[in-house]
Design a protein that fits this description.
By secondary structure, this protein is mainly alpha-helical. The chain has four helices and two strands, in the order ααββαα. It has one domain.
Length: 117
C-alpha cells in the first residue's frame, strides 16, 4: 500500500494537479474568510446575467464553495489512487480534471466575494 502511494505521488501528472488543487483550496478559504465579515447582513450568493442577483443569504453560505471543492478533491483523489494500478490514464484524468474544477471554484469564490465588496 505504501509503495503504491509512493509511486502515485511521484507521478508528475498526479503531483502537479494536487499542488494546484491544494493551492486553489487554500486561496478560496483564505479569500472568503479574509474578505467577508461575520455580520447579520445579507450577502449576494449568486448572480445571473439575465435576472441579476437571484440568491441572497448569510455570509457563511459562501463557505459552501470551498467545502464542495474539498469534498470533490478528496473523492476524486481517492478514486484516482484506487484505479492507479489498473489504468494510469484514467487516474491521471481524475487528477487533472480535479485541478481544472478547483480553478473554476477559485474563480467562483473570487467573483462571489467580489459582488459583496
Amino acid at each position: 500500500m505504501w509503495y503504491l502511494l509512493k509511486v502515485f505521488f511521484r507521478d508528475p501528472w498526479v503531483l502537479f494537479p494536487l499542488i494546484i488543487s491544494a493551492a486553489g483550496q487554500g486561496f478560496s478559504w483564505w479569500y472568503i474568510l479574509f474578505f467577508t465579515q461575520s455580520s447579520q447582513e445579507q450577502y449576494f450568493l449568486h448572480y445571473n446575467i439575465i435576472f441579476g442577483v437571484d440568491l441572497v443569504g448569510d455570509w457563511w453560505k459562501l463557505l459552501f464553495i470551498p467545502i464542495g471543492g474539498l469534498i470533490i478533491l478528496i473523492v476524486n483523489f481517492l478514486l484516482s489512487i484506487s484505479c492507479y494500478n489498473k489504468d494510469k490514464v484514467l487516474s491521471r484524468l481524475f487528477t487533472v480534471f480535479t485541478a481544472i474544477f478547483q480553478l473554476c471554484l477559485v474563480l467562483t469564490a473570487y467573483l462571489a466575494v467580489g459582488m459583496n465588496i
